[in-house]
Specification:
Length: 212
């Protein structure tokens, strides 16, 4: 009798999104995008795994992408940094670079040793979350008129017909906002430096010092 630990779960998706052996891709970005789309429809999250470089130590000759639950947590039940416990899942895709420069699938394992996520929740898994370009533009506009971030997230929820349909978490929005502020800090320092340099050109006696 098959135990629960031995049970395998295979994504039930349309055949056109399932990777196939010898299938070719122009770039590794295309490989990652295709596998992640398959994962989203199948109910799991992905991550980049091993790479093997060519003799030039630059060109990637072999690349592997795996289910995010690949590997083992140090302690049973422990969560990894990305919030998902590792359970030794073997699901993966591996590609090799051909002489043509294209990447061909030579390993594809579709079975998982853990239950797959439902469609309503899969969008919140790490590899499928992200603040879209449209949402970023809207965030920037709302920030200009001083709308607080938690209110912005509520607005995104109303716009999407519910927070569960937004496609990213409030933390993702906070992280995006933080990255924008850091970029602006650097830009402000550059502007200040240019301003002081212009002042120095106009008045050679002008002295300044920027303290880091």
């Amino acid at each position: 009798m098959e135990s629960e630990d031995d049970q395998l779960y295979i994504p039930q998706v349309k055949s056109e999104v399932v990777p196939k052996l010898k299938q070719e891709f122009e770039t590794l970005d295309e490989v990652a995008s295709f596998y992640n789309r398959y994962a989203k429809e199948g109910g799991f999250s992905t991550r980049s795994h091993t790479s093997k470089l060519g003799k030039d130590n630059t060109t990637v000759k072999r690349k592997e992408y795996v289910c995010s639950k690949q590997g083992d947590s140090k302690v049973e039940g422990e969560k990894c940094k990305r919030g998902l416990p590792k359970v030794g899942c073997k699901a993966r895709i591996a590609v090799v670079r051909k002489k043509t420069g294209k990447y061909a699938v030579f390993v594809f394992v579709d079975s998982h040793n853990h239950p797959l996520t439902t469609p309503g929740i899969v969008q919140f898994l790490r590899s499928h979350r992200g603040v879209s370009k449209v949402s970023k533009v809207l965030y920037d506009h709302l920030s200009l008129v001083n709308v607080k971030r938690h209110k912005q997230f509520e607005f995104f929820g109303v716009q999407a017909g519910g927070i569960e349909n937004v496609g990213f978490t409030q933390r993702d929005l906070y992280n995006y906002g933080s990255s924008i502020r850091e970029q602006k800090k650097g830009h402000d320092i550059d502007l200040l430096y240019m301003h002081f340099e212009n002042g120095k050109e106009k008045d050679p006696s002008f002295v300044y010092r920027i303290v880091g």
